[in-house]
Write a structure and sequence with these properties.
single chain; about 190 residues; alpha+beta; 434 Repressor (Amino-terminal Domain); Jelly Rolls; 2 domains; 6-stranded antiparallel sheet; 4-stranded antiparallel sheet; 10 strands
Amino acid sequence: MTDDAPLLGPQIQQLRKRRRLTLEQLASLSGVSRSMLSQIERSQANPTFATLWNLTRALGVDISELVGGRSTTAPAPAIDVIGGHFVPEIRSEDGLCTLRILSPAQSAGRTEWYEILLEPKGALVSAPHAAGAMEHVTVIEGELEVVSGTTVARAPAHGVARYPADVPHALRNLSSGRTRAFLVVAS
């Protein structure tokens, strides 16, 4: 007797839609490319264990729930602790900017928060977000140049900058060392 492998794609798609996440949002939260997610959801590709792990962490489900096709009977823990090496990261092509995604998957598109690490001359340049979106950046170490539309300001260490994010905007490291900041995006 052989058991068929579980069809993970439709389950992942159902969980994603239940959490009102787009493919792009889940890709950002999990570190799995949009094209790979699309293939997985259409059952055209099988995820590796690492990919599956990243998806379950981003979707807030236990891996056994997805693979077994049913919920575990144990209640969810009152405190969900995720090791630092499981926090999804996005890196710029030049390697000078790292975004660590700190917000839970279910908050994507509403309120998102990130840790930003910018090497010297590193920048996070963004296209406009949804109408009315705002960003709030708190500089922990270093100094940032903050650009929102045509307005430019400096945010020093321990300073906070709040600005419209529904226009082209950017954060640039002005320091000779690494700049570290926390960013909150509110839509």
